Amino acid sequence: MTLEQLAAIVARRATGEGEASYTRTLLAKGVAKCAQKLGEEAVETALAAVGADTKAVISETADLLYHLVVLLQARGVPLEDVYAELARRTRQSGLEEKASRPG
Ligand SMILES: N=c1c2ncn([C@@H]3O[C@H](COP(=O)(O)OP(=O)(O)OP(=O)(O)O)[C@@H](O)[C@H]3O)c2ncn1[C@@H]1O[C@H](COP(=O)(O)O)[C@@H](O)[C@H]1O
Q: Which reaction does it catalyse (predicted)?
């Protein structure tokens, strides 16, 4: 499952009718609740990262990424815009690398 696939599922949950969905319930609570959940999952991921249980790191990271995608949906920010920002930074750091190389 990629972030794009997850974002597509989350977007469908946001607009779709039908059976109960954790995602739809969370989105209905608004941006502040989604942000709070993201913060909680970030702390849980950080705590897992300094522990010994690698499976916990993976599981908490999956929770974190899911809640990040939900928050972006709640704020109306497309994943593509985040990718574009990452790409912009990559180009910049590439130029800096070249500029700092001797010769
Ligand atoms: N990846 C996830 C995912 N990761 C975590 N979670 C849910 O996130 C919740 C977080 O657990 P917590 O104990 O922190 O939260 P809680 O106490 O239940 O809720 P709060 O009262 O704190 O808000 C759990 O209910 C998890 O099931 C997820 N729920 C959904 N997805 C994806 O979203 C898709 C749509 O899911 P539904 O909206 O449930 O259909 C699924 O097919 C998955 O791909």
A: 1-(5-phospho-beta-D-ribosyl)-ATP + H2O = 1-(5-phospho-beta-D-ribosyl)-5'-AMP + diphosphate + H(+)
pLDDT attached to residue 25: 96
- Residue 41, ligand 1, Cβ within 6 A: no
Q: Which domains, from first to last, does the chain contain?
A: 3-78 (1.10.287.1080)
Q: What is the ipTM of this complex?
A: 0.90
Q: Decide: 36 in ligand 1 pocket, CB within 6 A.
A: no
Which tokens go with 86? 């990452």
Instruction: Assess contact for 10 and 75: CB atoms under 8 A.
Output: no
